[in-house]
Amino acid sequence: xxxxxxxxxxxxxxxxxxxxxxxxxxxxxxxxxxxxxxxxxxxxxxxxxxxxxxxxxxxxxxxxxxxxxxxxxxxxxxxxxxxxxxxxxxxxxxxxxxxxxxxxxxxxxxxxxxx
Length: 115
Hints:
Elements: H1 11-21, H2 24-30, E1 31-39, E2 42-45, H3 47-57, E3 67-72, E4 78-86, E5 92-103, E6 106-114
Parallel strand pairs: 1-6
Antiparallel strand pairs: 1-2, 3-4, 4-5, 5-6
Helix pairs in contact: 1-2
């Protein structure tokens, strides 16, 4: 991880770390201003709106996201991450695949698929 306003070398893994640790400053640095999160239950548009949702509105904030696999596009423009969402007791909530799109070193879009 890097310090200051720089983004980490692996923004997808840093994204889950930011969520799990409640590091909303890091989360803000990772996301492009026009960030979009498209998930099965809603679409959230805009970096500030997404960070607000994660900080204040998500149903459970004491969760972890163990990563089971990372699959990178050959041109580096995207990553698919397979993982699990666990509650505070480490009980499974869902399995997921997040498809990341990057622009200029920031996360521009995440499409989430859950099971």
